[in-house]
Amino acid sequence: MKNRLHSLPVIAVYAFTMVSPCFSADPSDENATRILDKYGSRIYTVFAYTVRPAESTDQKKTSPYVCRNIGTAFSLDSEDHLITFNCVIKSAEHIRVISRIGEKFNARALGCDENDGLNVLEIDHRNEESSPRILFSDNITPARKVVLLGVARKEGLTANTGVIGTMKPHDGTFVVNVDGLPCTSGSTVFDTGGNLLGFVVYRIEGDDDNGGNGMNEESVRSHTYAVLPVKYAFGIAQTIINKEKGGCGWLGIYTNFKTDPSGPEGALIHQVIKDSPAEKSGMKKYDYIIEFNNIPITNPLELVKAVTSTRAGDSVPVRIRRENRIYSYTVTLARYP
Fold first, then answer.
1. CATH class for domain 246-332?
2. How far is residue 216 from each of residues 66, 175, 208, 212, 256, measured CA to CA in Å?
3. Cβ-contact 271, 2 below 8 angstroms
4. pLDDT at residue 306 in the model
5. By C-alpha distance, which of 14, 17, 23 is closest to 150?
6. Alpha-carbon distance 32 to 142, whole Å?
């Protein structure tokens, strides 16, 4: 699942001191308050620490670590896997997360998708608190109002409102413009109905008359973010989890979670990896997978879910659409390389 996020100047994440795990939203915005109340239990603050320099002589600083970065993470499932981004935890030697009620957990990074920078964390204690079912949407329409939940400087976890922009800087991402407190990487983006749309990857450096999205002047309150759509993000995260567990089968293709509503149903193959099960079976670039292991596939996320239900060594039937013809294959899945 490839996606390139490297061509624009960016600000990845801020350096912070410890913030409180408080939650706040504009009381005049009922949508923001409602979404914050509903999904607050799934939002975590991530603190990335490095070892304190040996030359530090401040006796008051008893911890061997110093906090370098702070960001936001979202609870992916009941097993306490969290989505964040590598720019938050890169080079961290110790990671801690804090829940909305102040619970502190150690976390470890399971893996990172190098193309998108998405990282999956696993915390060291199962969260017994009941979390709401996640509602998804891929209705990404310019000028549509959105709500962002994430860390905002010393205010802790907050709800900001914004709108979807018309600019799409990278394949597979969309832009959100926010007038309010700046957010961090990993912040979640919802529509006003409470459907999850995606995750903030980074803040785009602007070039306007006011100093560029507020990064140089505190008086400027406008910020622009690149956002990874939720289906793409969840597909990448599930792949990282499956690779870590080492149990499910590996097909050996790259697909793209940016879907074309006017295009055909299925998971479009953007690349077939050399010597993979997909290549050995005869699949090609630009084929659409429309059925996997007797499960109909209408989009890439369904393909990820279907593959995760298999085991390495399983032989499964696969149907693909190539131009106007349907082909059937039997594929013997391998372990993740």
1. mainly beta
2. 26, 21, 11, 7, 35
3. yes
4. 87
5. 23
6. 19
Amino acid at 60: K
- pLDDT tens for 249-285 read 889 998 766 555 556 788 889 889 999 999 999 999 9
Parallel, antiparallel, or unpaired: how do β-strands 267-272 and 288-292 relate? antiparallel
Question: What are the structure tokens assigned to 96, written together?
Answer: 């801690």
Q: Please report, for the chain, how many H helices and E strands are present, in that order.
A: 5, 20
Residue owning tokens 């059925």: 291
Q: What is the spatial distance between Cα 149 and Cα 161, in angstroms, rounded to a whole number?
A: 9
Domain ranges of the chain: 10-15+37-123, 246-332
Residue 109: both structure tokens together:
């990074």
pLDDT in tens, 24-36: 555 457 888 888 8
The CATH architecture to which 10-15+37-123 belongs is Beta Barrel (2.40)
Collapsed DSSP state (helix, strand, coil) of residue 303: helix
Chain mean position to CA 153: 20
Q: How far apart are CA 252 and CA 232, in angstroms?
A: 17
